[in-house]
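S.,

Sequence below, as promised.
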Amino acid sequence: MVPEHLNFYIDPNRCIGCQACVQACTECDTHKGQTMIHLEYVNRTESVQTVPVVCMHCDAPTCAEVCPADAIKRTPDGVVQSARKPRCIACGNCVVACPFGVPEVFVEEQLMKKCDMCYDRTSVGKRPMCATVCPSQALFFGTREQIEKLRPRSTPVNEFQFGSQKITTRVSMMVPKESQARYVDVVAAMDAHATGRRVSLNVVSEDPFAEVPTV
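The prediction came back faster than expected:
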């Protein structure tokens, strides 16, 4: 089991797009040369800024809730595993349902796979492969005390608002401390982008229905 005092933290503002994490993911013993994470461009037409996409390991994983074959399980320590091969029917429901865009169906194997926080490593206290190679520490695995010391101007947030749905995750995202936010309002950020308003990467709000601040 993953030790309770060790957690995964993502700091999107520190990602430099080097792809080291993507390559390292293929070297995890259980991934068989396949990467389970990828980088997304925040706004490809205006910036080269990227953000690493890893599984957030939801407390109530939507991917598991919509799986008709009951192939996706969450371990007692809060890690959501890839689909179990004997049960997965490669329907893709989990791919569509995940609010973070994490699961992927590997067509050749007819199996959904995703980031499992390098469970073979983290369950024995080791860091995930991606966190061991990230040169900017955009991906960090350790204690809350360690990340707060490294990022004195940021605070970890593990609650995300998608419209009226609030999702709590085991993985935390680092956001500016001055925002005093309790969660990241994802839908509000997407709406602001669609209407042409410029917003920071970490759009946060105390009120899920409040207007998104512009910068």
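The longest helix spans residues 186-194.

Coffee later?
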